Sequence to fold (245 residues):
Amino acid sequence: MNNIENKLKKQLKSKKTIVFVLIDSENVDINTSIDLAQNSENAGASAILVGGSSIIDQLEMIKLVQELKNNISLPIILFPGNITGVIPGADAILFSSLLNSENPYFISKAQALAAPAILKFNLEPLSTAYIIIGSGTTAEFVGSAKGIPFEKHKLAASYALAAKFFGMKFVYLEAGSRAHNSVTPEMVKTVRKAFDGFLIVGGGINNHITAKNLSDAGADILVIGTLLEQKNNLKMLKKIIQYIQ
Ligand code: 1GP
Fold:
């Protein structure tokens, strides 16, 4: 049952930090997505996340997940922004509660509505505290979150500690897709002290120096999306992975 979680654990025994590549099926067509996933696998990424804040076409997403399963051997993990992001065919799902949302729908109601489908589709649920950092991003707006200011490290750590007490296995510090600034290494350091599970950091990571600093601060998993979608910037992905091993 804990297949994917165990796989990730195993990888993190030999690597300091690993990379998940995010594919948003609303932004990239299927053929480009498959190329991107294959190239990411060859570059040394550890999983493909499929999802985004504003999924409207589930059929397209199901097709994409099927094609990814046919073409690559990396785990495919759903990253839903709402119940529309829960589809069959993937290996696992970031089963997330948006802890700093001001709308209970995103904290527990969507999760309850989606849970039976997750069971039926046999998706491994990876229990995740999703925490939005900073403001002005789609993720913050859609999730009705009150973003934690970038410099309020202790606040983020308090949420991470709450996640630990809830028994959640993953904490995802999310600056938001295309964020101007990524989460700071100082915040990651403070959160790392409070939370000993899988620490995911994403949003606005677009070069190896940022990636290395986040890795040194204690991030286990970096999520890279826009960098690859916009420029198919594989060289930079390879460099990032090389710098954070
Ligand atoms: C967004 O954290 C992810 O949910 C990735 O962000 O698209 O900015 O890489 P980017």
The radius of gyration is 16 Å. Residues 104-120 form the longest helix (17 residues). The beta strands are 18-23, 47-52, 76-80, 92-98, 124-132, 170-174, 198-202, 221-224. The pocket of SN-glycerol-1-phosphate is lined by residues 22, 139, 174, 177-179, 202-205, 223-227 (CB under 6 Å).
